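Feature request disguised as a bug: please show the residue count (145) next to Arsenate reductase in the output. Example input:
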Amino acid sequence: MPEAFDVVVYHNPACGTSRNTLAMIRNAGVEPHVVEYLKTPPNRALIRQLLARAGLSVREVLREKGTPYAELDLADLALTDEQLLDAVEAHPVLLNRPLVVSPKGVRLCRPSEAVLDLLPAQHGEFVKEDGERVVDERGRRVATA
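Example output, currently without the count:
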């Protein structure tokens, strides 16, 4: 019997990258714990833990597009991690997604196929919403040009 493979995905269903990531997790035969982070935002301590495990800084996971990033002047390099976390707590949409946690690590899965490094083998072909073929019919990653 295969060992349990517990995966958590911090997901935004309105985001194509997030939807593709979730679909690849399921294509690997894994039903993840899906956290819609805009409805249930991770707290500051969890964000710190996730970023430490992923080897990322707070600044590296800030989302600019479609957020109050510019209005809050978050590009200001004088802002501390604590100030950036204050902004993320007040505006969870600033946290880029999808963040995926698996027994193989934690990663911000942009592009979505980055999730493949965190999963067991894919169960057949996977094609992203935009038509890009990522995994072939044998479950192998397709080389990109």
